[in-house]
Structures are given as structure tokens and as C-alpha cells.
Amino acid sequence: MTELDVERIRKDFPALHLTVGGKSLVYLDNAATSQKPQAVIDAVTRYYAEQNANVHRGVHYLSELATDLYEKSRKKVQKFLNAPLTCEIIFTRGATEGINLVAQTYGRAHVGAGDEVLISAMEHHSNIVPWQMLCEEKGATLRVIPMNDAGELLVEEFEKLLTPRTKMVGLSHVSNALGTVNPVKKMIAMAHANGTPVLVDGAQSAPHVPIDVQDIDCDFFVCSGHKMCGPTGIGVLFGKAPRLDAMPPYQGGGDMILSVTFEKTIFNSLPYKFEAGTPHIEGAIGLGVAVDYLAELGMERIAKWEDELLEYGTRLLSNIDGVRRIGTAPHRAAVLSFTMDCAHPHDIGQIFSDNGVAIRAGHHCAQPVMQRFGVPATARISLAFYNTKADLDAAAAAAEAVKKVFD
Questions:
Q1: What confidence tens digit (pLDDT) does each residue in 319-341 have?
Q2: Is 218 known to be catalytic?
Q3: Architecture of domain 6-29+298-406
Q4: Which among 223, 229, 342, 365 is annotated as catalytic?
Q5: 42-296 has which CATH code?
């Protein structure tokens, strides 16, 4: 397997060549959103300049062209996730909407009073709040899979929590706050042995590791385009066709119908049943280009390079006095969360920015994780395949600058 030519790749990303306060930008906030290659930017611009029309509704040239590009993107995503059927790919506004869609359709139909929904202690708020809302509405109980001090889920405790009352499991594939890669394939097999379907939140895994929804055998998988070099406001819900077929629509409106009278509406087939109204056409087209870009680089090669960066960055941080890493699981991806004895994470983030290094500081929409580790927030370095060891050297130098200010 040939290695990535990172210096060549970086030329594809205009934002990586910006200067901030006279310093070259070092972008290490990829878990929040990735930068976009010129090919994606061009695809979105081209749609508005030369292809702008609504999809599925017209017989004129532009509408047919836009429809073709939109549906080709769906097929690209199907291949990227190794989904069995194109109709199992639903375009959403992002991973968050995908989770809400499942909670409000499958969840409402299958979770009742006295039932339980099982999620993990490291979930993003997007995979907590929709299930809380459902449980409150239905009189069900939200159960939580605990984790250890390294930030690893306790799989044996998960198995104990599975009961006949467990009607749904929601799991992050990769923790956005810790970087932990969860053993989702093993956990899905356990849940299926209990007759329980599983939704996997892949917002932090799809940009970084190869995804095969057939191999892990999840019932639902969600991801966000903007974290995988695509536009904002577009995401994907994969669902097994029998599950999706049995679920009621999420929203009503145009394009999700076959026939409407005042007496009765007949809903459209998959995937359109879940795509009411004019979709984010240029977002879907841009996502298709982003998926092409990632696939051409090769997700295995991306994962290998990011693992090397993660190991290098871990060594750098470990050599700085007063730094405490939050999340030390052996199997991690793309995330380095830490605190410093001398400064609050928000001050760390500001001084990093003053030195041209963009990181994230806060609770990362994972407040229960912060509570578990007894910290109000963390500073988070998050990597992408276009990052370099020089970027991490700059981050380490910024950490030393924090110490000079506050020590």
C-alpha cells in the first residue's frame, strides 16, 4: 500500500494556505468540520452556475441533469458505505437529523412504556437528546453503557444491560471527545442476539476509517458530509431496507408521495419517502465529489497516515509537563483531547489561535464525558489526512507558549 502524498494533497485545499495574524494557519479542528478540496468547491459553484434546477420534477434539460447528478451521488455514497441497495441511502441535513429521523419514526413505533433505550456514556448530545425525548414521551427508560478511566466502553456491562425491554441501541463508532474506536461489530452482534436493532453514529468514523455497513451489520448508520470534506447541511442515513420500509415518514410534503387526495395519501417508495421537499441538491452533489476524493485517496491509506500522526502527537503531548490527556484507550482515531494544569481549556484555545493553530476548546457536545472525567472542558486537537507532523510540532510549540503565559 503506497503512502499518501500529503504535500500534494494539501495543494487541493485553499484554506490550508491562509495566514492568521501573520502566521500560517495550522488547522487541527477537523472533528468539528473538515476543510474542503477545490473539487468540492467547484462542484457546488458549477451547480449554481450551470446545473441549477429542481430534481425529480422536470422533464427539461437542467432538471434532468440535476436529477442525474443527485442520484449519482447517492450511488457513490452507497458504494462508500458498502450498503447493499441504493434505496437504503437517505439524504439528510446531517448525522443529527438522521438520528432524530430514526428516533421519531422507528423509535415512536417500537418503544413504549416500560421499555428501554441503551446508549453509551461517550455519546455526542445528538445521540443522547433525541432518545431522551423519546423516552420521556413514551414512559421508557434511557440506560447508559459505562466506560473505564481510559475511555473504553465496558462491553461486559453492555451485555448485562441487554434485556427483553431493550428496544433500541445507539452507539458512537468513534468518540468525538475521546477518539475511542468502539468495538461496534461485536456489540451489534450482542444486541442482535437480544433481538435489538442498533444505530451507529458514524460522524467521526466515516471521514477516518473504512466503513462497511454490511460487515458490522448495523441496522442504521449516520454520517455528516461536512466532516468528510463535503458541504455543510448534508448528511446520510443508511438503513436496512426492511427497517426503512416499515417506518412511517419523518416529514410530509412534496416528493415523498405517490398520490395525494383529501381522503388519503399514498407514500413514495424508498428512499424518497424520507426526503420531503426540495433537497439540498448542491450539497448532495458536493458530497458525491467528496466521497470520490476520499475513495481515490483510499480510506485504508488515510487511516494509516492518521494513526501515524496520532502516535506522533501523543508522544509530543506526553512530553509536556502539566498536560493531562483525556481518553487514553489503545484503539483511538484522529482525536487528542487534553487539559493543562496551568490554564483553562478556553485560554489554551485562545493562545493556540494567537499562534496560528486552530483547535477546539469546550465540552464538545459531550457534557456527560466531561463529567465522567471530572473536567469542565478539554482542549481538542483533531486530525485529518491533510495534516502533517509539522502541524503537530506547531501545536506542541503553542502548548509551551501557554505555559509561558500562565506558569
A1: 999 999 999 999 999 999 999 99
A2: no
A3: Alpha-Beta Complex (3.90)
A4: 365
A5: 3.40.640.10
